[in-house]
Amino acid sequence: MIYQRSSQLFAEAEKVIPGGVNSPVRAFKAVGGTPIFVKSAKGAYLYDEDGNRLIDYINSWGPMVLGHAFEPVVDAVVAKAKLGTSFGMPTELETQIAALAVSMVPNIDKIRFVNSGTEACMSAIRLARGYTKRDKIIKFAGCYHGHSDSFLIQAGSGAITFGSPNSPGVTEGTAKDTLLARYNDLENVATLIEANKNEIAAIIVEPVAGNMGCIPPQKGFLEGLRQLCTENGIQLIFDEVMTGFRLAKGGVQELYGIQADIVCFGKVIGGGLPVGAFAARSEIMNHLAPLGPVYQAGTLSGNPLAMAAGLAMLQALNNDPAIFQRLEEKTAYLAAGIDRVLKANNVVFTINRVGSMISVHFDANPVVDFQSAAKGDNDTFKKFFHGLLQEGIYIAPSAYETWFITDALTYEDLDVTIQAIEKVSKTF
Ligand code: KE4
By the number of CB atoms within 10 A of the CB, which of 64, 78, 278, 382 ranks highest? Predict the structure, then answer.
């Protein structure tokens, strides 16, 4: 594969955009090399500026669960754009997508739309603090909830990839209200709660972690968090920016039958346009302005274009529940193929998977939290990433990311991918 044009474009981008990208993980710093510039995409394929076709296992970090340029979404956006793109006034469309989301997701009565997953999680924390009148929050090392200050305390994803867990610019004043726990370690959480009695407003968790690679909740972990929160008057916030509308129609609350108090969404809910959202029962959401005292706002929140894209996406998912079974079957097929060929080549690895979220870790031990995820052999991962890229397969440019499977993938695409992994793993 030749990436000459991408390299030229990256050099130009670096002159006017910090690091040449608008989000750090895209810069390939964790794997080396220069980022690929995309010209277009359709279904499961990316077409880069050098004319290469790549099978896409990132799908814009999750949104393209039904493939790139999914026609119902594209048609809805084109039609809506001709009628005006943003009014800063209420539209019926917002009510339609809100009502549909509320009907799809358990245990929520109302939803507020924002413009990113960061905004959704940031707002959810403020709502929990306003509702409980407490200041502190617990998050988990390696989990990522966006780049607002309260979360950049050993965040996962980009910050971990850059090996600088605490970001400069986050004040001590902010950091002191964020407590860090170990994922899948209920005892650790209980200890933190005990040591901060009646001071903790919320526990925010990726109910299936995707920013340390994919890490499933161990049996009893989410149930334990639910019980600890109920016993201590703490709001349990499920950050479902990755998992929402992907792992099940109703997300992880449906998948595992566990109720959060507040749920955050992003990615899929916008169908590829900038949409985030947070939702809860009315007794909590009614604390939000203009009804209640907790302030939260946004010029482009609920704008017609984004709502049109999101509504078309949610309607497609709501009308064909078989999509989630197909995603499960395709990802299980991929996992079995990777397992087979890596074992045949005597590679040391672990595969983590929940539904259509999957990651490969080059370490023999179970990957159950940030500490164990960090033990993966990054040199092997770099060979894995670049070897697959040369074969026309695009996986996450970081060992601390999950892959996002799209229903647009065919079994032929999966076989091509498995064969490429077999070939590349011979070079380890
Ligand atoms: P955004 O602000 O990027 O829309 O969402 C933040 C966010 C919140 N919660 C979870 C669980 C997330 O995974 C994310 C963002 N995910 C990253 C990928 N690990 C987005 C990619 C990027 O940062 O460019």
Answer: 278
